[in-house]
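Example 9 (inverse folding). The structure is encoded as follows.
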């Protein structure tokens, strides 16, 4: 039986792993199941990967805020949220 949420998740995971991202099983992560992202890890990666954010780590909060807004705006529309997040990640990657 087709399940849109699973299909979107599988698509998203496959695309990210093709680009060198590592998949971690959710139950193995130190976070609440209600958390959309691993905020501490995202913040650390932003500082490590972006010289402007490294110069002013508070700028990571701006990016995290935008990521949260993408998920909120697309509540119930997983495909839209995944597409927007993927586009944001691709843009960020191209800027490096």
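The amino acid assigned to each position is listed next.
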């Amino acid at each position: 039986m087709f399940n849109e949420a699973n299909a979107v998740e599988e698509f998203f995971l496959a695309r990210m792993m093709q680009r060198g991202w590592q998949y971690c099983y959710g139950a193995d992560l130190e976070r609440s199941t209600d958390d959309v992202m691993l905020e501490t890890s995202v913040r650390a990666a932003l500082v490590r990967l972006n010289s402007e954010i490294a110069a002013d780590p508070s700028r990571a909060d701006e990016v995290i805020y935008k990521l949260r807004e993408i998920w909120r705006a697309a509540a119930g529309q997983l495909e839209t949220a995944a597409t927007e997040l993927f586009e944001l990640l691709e843009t960020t990657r191209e800027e490096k």
